Amino acid sequence: MNQSIINTEIKPFSATAFHKGEFVPVTEKDLLGKWSVVFFYPADFTFVCPTELGDMADHYEKLQAMGVEVYSVSTDTHFTHKAWHDASDTINKIQYPMIGDPTGAITRNFGVMIEEDGLALRGTFVINPEGQIKVSEVHDLGIGRSAAELVRKIQAAQYVATHDGEVCPAAWQPGAETLAPSLDLVGKI
Questions:
Q1: Which of 52, 120, 152, 183 is within CB 3.0–4.6 Å of 40 for a Cys-Cys bond?
Q2: Which UniProt keywords apply (predicted)?
Q3: Residue 159 is inside which H or E element, if any?
Q4: Are 102 and 24 in contact, with CB atoms under 8 Å apart?
């Protein structure tokens, strides 16, 4: 088993992304100062991947309003991302950076590389403005993710970050009650 990367700082990286019709450099420094999602997927031109990336694109405006930037990452090149963007109506609606990681360095940094295939697992990581990983979720290749559930998790992470001493219970939604862990709550929930 890998040691948990929760609360660790993201490791340095340098890559090229396809973003809004351009090839742009991206490093770990671009993730600092705001909430970020790093969203790994196995490969362009596949089956479950476009459903996930399209779902993320559908939630991107809400995430932006929450101060969150999304970075999708696969071991494809940024050139392949552009070709996929140009060929697919689903991928064409993406407004967030699509990072190419052909060497697998970023994918390995986050512990989601399938070495024998040279592909990433479906890994989702939420990073706070200080560069610490606050949410880590990894799925098998056949299990697609839900951007709506990710939005809820980010809302909870942002709430906890700004409300010292409070925690969010299961299925918490903004506006719902939180908990303040204390001795008098033990055994009462």
A1: 120
A2: Antioxidant, Cytoplasm, Disulfide bond, Oxidoreductase, Peroxidase, Redox-active center
A3: helix 147-162
A4: no
Residue 31 token pair: 């993730």
Establish whether 49 is a catalytic residue: yes
Cα(90)–Cα(87) distance, rounded to whole angstroms? 9
The angle subtended at Cα 142 by Cα 68 and Cα 169, nearest 5°, is: 45
What phi and psi values does residue 159 have, to the nearest 5 degrees?
A: -65, -50
Q: Give φ, ψ of 44 to 5 degrees.
A: -70, 160
Among residues 10, 38, 49, 73, the one annotated as catalytic is: 49
Q: With contact defined as beta carbons under 8 Å apart, do 120 and 141 qualify? A: no
Task: Walk me through the domains of the chain, giving residue ranges and CATH numbers.
Answer: 8-145 (3.40.30.10)
The mean pLDDT values, 10 residues at a time, for the chain of 189 residues are 83 98 98 98 96 98 98 98 97 98 98 97 98 96 96 97 95 94 78
Q: Is the dihedral of CA 77, 30, 72, 53 positive or negative?
A: negative
Going from the C-alpha of 91 to that of each of 49, 65, 88, 130, 138, the distances in angstroms are: 10, 21, 5, 30, 22
Name the residue among 164, 131, 95 with its Cα closest to residue 9: 131
Nearest to 153 by CA among 189, 125, 114, 188: 125
